[in-house]
Amino acid sequence: MAAKKDDVEQAVVEAGAPNEKAVTQPGTGSEPEAVSGEPDPAPEQDDRIALPESVVLSAPYAFIDDTGATRAWSPGVTVTDAEDIELLIGRKAPLDGIEYED
């Protein structure tokens, strides 16, 4: 009965003979570290601005969202939900103390 290729390769590795598959094993720390001579790239910057913890509507604001639901706020309402604040600012809703650039 002929020996299988994997059995022969394993026997060669166990005997200590050179074998390309046995030279480096990924994840064992035996791989050389890549050195490019260039500094590590800077971490990506988040272009979003920091949102306030709360906003107050200075006028009524409403719209119909993508699901068909009506979203509405009355003037003077204080909004504290971060997702709603991001939504209102993104849609340039009339908010006390927030000015938008065109």
Structural topology:
Elements: H1 5-15, H2 20-23, E1 55-56, E2 61-64, E3 70-73, E4 78-79, H3 82-90
Antiparallel strand pairs: 1-4, 2-3
Characterise this structure.
- It is built from three helices and four strands; from the N terminus they run H-H-E-E-E-E-H.
- The protein has 102 residues and is α+β, with helices and mostly antiparallel strands.
- It has a domain of 36 residues.
- The protein has a two-stranded antiparallel sheet with strand order 1-4.
- The longest helix has 11 residues.
- About 6% of the residues have low confidence.
Structure described in brief:
This protein is 24% helix and 12% strand.
Q: What's the β-strand tally?
A: 4
Low-confidence stretches: 19-24
**Biggest beta-sheet profile:** 2 strands, antiparallel
**End-to-end span in angstroms?**
81 Å
Name the structural class.
alpha+beta
What is the strand arrangement across the widest sheet? 1-4
The multimeric state of the shown protein is single chain
Strand content: 5-15%
Radius of gyration: 31 Å
Name the descriptors.
single chain, 102 residues, alpha+beta, two-stranded antiparallel ribbon, 3 helices, 4 strands
